[in-house]
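Memo to structure team: turn this sequence into structure tokens by end of day. - J.P.
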Amino acid sequence: MLNTKNILVVIDPNSDEQAALQQAEEIAAASGAKLTALVCIYELGAEIDTVLGGTLLKNLRKPVLARKKEWLDGILAPMRDRGISIESKVEWAKKDYQFIAKLTEEQDFDLIIKSSHHHSKIQRALYTPGDWHLIRKSKVSILFVRQKQTLKGGQLLLALDVIDNKGNLEYLNKTLLDETKHFSEQLDLTVNLVNAYPTTYMFATFSPEEYSHAVIQKRLEVSHREALETIAQRNDIDADRVFLQEGEVSEVINDVANDISAGIIVMGCHGRDGFSGFLLGNSAESVLESVERNILIVKTPGETSQ
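Reply from structure team:
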């Protein structure tokens, strides 16, 4: 449950601008959550295990960790001067996403807030971005911060899947809607719904000859619209806050978010890996790389990658 009572804020060790901290402060003020700021660092020069023994190796790391701790406390000082209680933590971690996922379980964090940046197509081809790994491995929700802004009183855009192919979509959407309602009430956000339905050509090869593209397209639109409007009615969301468009999920979400000036986009994610993750795109990962807005990934029931 997205109770936002114990928040882990992941700090970028290479930047003095920490947009994630501003968002964490705003959410903590609204929810009364406890804040912990985490920096994960790793320097190859202090990781020569094959040459140095354990004690000497630790002694090499100590000054590196101490300098970064001093730097972090300096960044947190203005918040503390405003009376905000926030713990600082600096840890040695080669794969920060693994450490973060493990720490959230060990210390019962219920939300991760982390700054995020786009990765080029070349970068994504060469390696899987750490944020993608974190989405798949984390068992708690993650707020990826792209813009330094105030959320309170703004627009929230919730992206939903409405066509059930596995029999559990109603339960998953209810979980996602409940989480979104709780979050939006804390920050006085207006909830909007968005859904994308696929373009006809995606099915052209498999369609019986008697069905034209226009017929298939209309049926898709009607089925998605009816399902989305039913969800909106059940959750007291006004019709003018419901958006349905044809096209790729990330493109539709981006277009609607721009149209309504959404301060935050909310999506559900199972954290799937392997082939199922590939088929999903992963949808959350695709949107994360395509949309220049803050994105809250709500972890719905499902397996996480180990």
